[in-house]
Automatic annotation (TrEMBL):
InterPro entries: TLC-dom, TLCD. This is TLCD2 protein. The gene is Tlcd2. One of its GO terms (biological process) is phospholipid homeostasis. It is found in: Membrane. Its main location: membrane. PANTHER family: CT120 PROTEIN, TLC DOMAIN-CONTAINING PROTEIN 2. It comes from Oreotrochilus melanogaster.
């Protein structure tokens, strides 16, 4: 989207092509479905962190969808999900007991690399943008964004530490 619509990088608040709003709306649906699925099919002690993560995303993206604003900012947040491909593949390889394979090792390296680029760097950029644009964001929306970033950033740092310890510090 940013390549095809460079104006998004100039205005993350009000500018969005129709497809971008739809993408964020569909993402809310995905997070809602995944949230309900986890509630029904997993034990709470196994999934509480992800349920909490999904709650924050649903609220933040929901505001964007309902207000038709901050769609560009939500698109930036969706970059984080690129890494989810490798996190999910890691889970599948673990469930298949393929931990000691080249495929698992390669995925671990790619997972860590995409984690740094698409999670850590993106969340840092978003936090910086929010801070630099605090005068242009209404107080309630700024509060939701700040709380969202304050929750997501430590959660992602902790998960990064767990991945590093599990896959590289044995």
């Amino acid at each position: 989207r940013f390549y095809l619509h460079p104006e998004l990088s100039e205005d993350l608040v009000g500018t969005h092509p129709p497809g971008a709003h739809s993408l964020v709306a569909v993402s809310v649906g995905y997070f809602l479905e995944d949230f309900v699925d986890m509630l029904c099919n997993q034990k709470l002690h196994q999934s509480w962190e992800l349920l909490f993560h999904h709650s924050v995303v649903i609220v933040c993206f929901g505001i964007s969808v309902l207000l038709h604003q901050y769609v560009g900012f939500a698109l930036m947040a969706l970059l984080v999900e690129i890494n989810s491909i490798f996190l999910h593949l890691r889970q599948i390889l673990l469930m298949a007991n393929l931990v000691h394979t080249t495929c698992y090792r390669l995925n671990s390296i790619i997972n860590l690399g995409t984690y740094v680029v698409f999670r850590i760097a993106t969340l840092a950029w978003m936090s910086r943008w929010l801070f630099l644009n605090r005068e242009n964001v209404p107080p309630a929306t700024y509060a939701v964004g700040t709380v969202g970033m304050a929750i997501m950033t430590p959660m992602n740092i902790i998960l990064f530490y767990r991945l590093l310890r599990s896959d590289f510090c044995k």
